[in-house]
Amino acid sequence: MKRGFLNKGASARRLTTTKSSATSGSDSAEKPMQLSRAGKDTVVAATQGSKFQFSGVCRLHSNSPRIIVSDYRIPSFYATHFLYLPSADNATMVYIDSLKGVQTVSAWPLWTQPAPSPPANPPFEIRECDDKGLGMIALRRIARGEVIVRQRPLLFSHPTLHINPDQMHTFFESALAGLSPDTQSAFNSLRNAQLETEDVPRSRGIILTNALATQVPQSHDPTANYNAVFASLSRANHDCSPNAHYSFSAGTFTGRLTALRIIQPGEEITLGYTDIELPRAQRRQVLATKFKFDCGCTTCCLSPKKATESDTRRAAIAAFLIRINELNVNTTEGTEPLFPEGASLARASELLRWAEGERLIEAASKLAMAAAGLAYKENNTSETTRLALRAINYLRAEEGNDSPHFVRFARGTGFSPEQMAAKFDSSSDEEMMGPNLNA
Ligand SMILES: C[S@@+](CC[C@H](N)C(=O)[O-])C[C@H]1O[C@@H](n2cnc3c(N)ncnc32)[C@H](O)[C@@H]1O
Known about the structure:
Blueprint: E1 42-47, E2 50-55, E3 59-62, E4 67-69, E5 80-85, E6 93-98, H1 99-106, E7 124-128, E8 134-138, E9 147-151, E10 155-157, H2 168-177, H3 181-188, H4 202-210, E11 212-214, E12 226-229, E13 237-238, E14 244-249, E15 254-259, E16 268-271, H5 280-291, H6 304-328, H7 345-357, H8 361-377, H9 381-399, H10 404-412, H11 417-425, H12 429-433
Parallel strand pairs: 6-10, 13-16
Antiparallel strand pairs: 1-2, 3-4, 4-5, 5-6, 7-8, 8-16, 9-15, 10-12, 11-12, 14-15
Helix pairs in contact: 6-7, 6-8, 7-8, 8-9
The structure holds S-adenosylmethionine (SAM).
S-adenosylmethionine (SAM) is lined by residues 131-135, 190-191, 193, 209-210, 234-235, 237-238, 291-293, 295-297.
């Protein structure tokens, strides 16, 4: 698989946009017709014993797979469609996309297999976290790279939808109507942090609040950041030095969280909703605007002097990683990475220490890999080995103990992945990463 150097897979960031106008969208050079409000125009798509009641102008496109066109008056090329999975009779997920998009996904053989089971004995519970609402709290120590939760989304939606603003409510209510009652109530119990308006009815507010940006390389639109909304996984709150990583497997169509560092019992499990390398003021502005909260994490509560120091470190880390990414966007796995002019092992090692001190593990993972590459270039064998080991340790924290990269690496050294993981886990976060600079 083609893979940009240091640019691994799905973004952990929350989606912040669901384009909603009939004129927006990458494939909308021509505009679909303008629609009037559906009002009481209720359509019943009754098929083969099951009765689905859709308000508005939905029509059944096919029964097996169950595909509904959201508005029959829009030419089907433009119209958004709802696909119910894994089966029409007990749909636990709605996939929202163009007709081509839903047809691509519906043809995947994985829907005939049972959904992967969640980790036995989940290491967290969902409970109130002060002013944050609900959150995920660790019930026991969670090791680096451990899978915390794994589940299929309740709703998976292309970021560009052809809907008139005054059709929003009807559209989303109709999309949810084909789901099983339990799935509907799981969706409806999620938090809506958005102000409710005609343009942002509650169902859309729930998506804007809870969706995680997810790319599916095998989908009809591989570069799109789909909105993935989950029952428990979406309960993870934000922190500017998060301890968990979100990834998505298209092979099983499941999202999961893995522990980036050791999570202690009682500690909250958190994700980064925005670019956590941004300066504090910018991070806080994005979080307040898009997610409607004032971040009170440890890094956001630093004194002005310490906050400036943290901002400086994060800015330097971001600048270095952006440059490396630009240079390596088209490199494939196994080829030699390219480095910016003047990049040195000393500088990469300093940035790695900063990322570790800031507890920015995803950045540390990339920096360790870059530093190992620079050590190799500088013929520094001992540092190459030390940094490569560190890089693989961070990579398996992100990708999980079952990461194919980690498994291959462990086997190559003669250890089983479990033995290697235990070896890595024997050190505390402080031993591995040095002191937390913002504690
Ligand atoms: C995806 S939800 C997270 C789960 C949510 N707390 C709940 O009760 O279901 C995102 C919303 O949770 C709240 N939230 C998340 N992280 C927060 C934080 N660090 N501080 C305050 N509120 C937070 C905000 O209202 C945000 O829009």
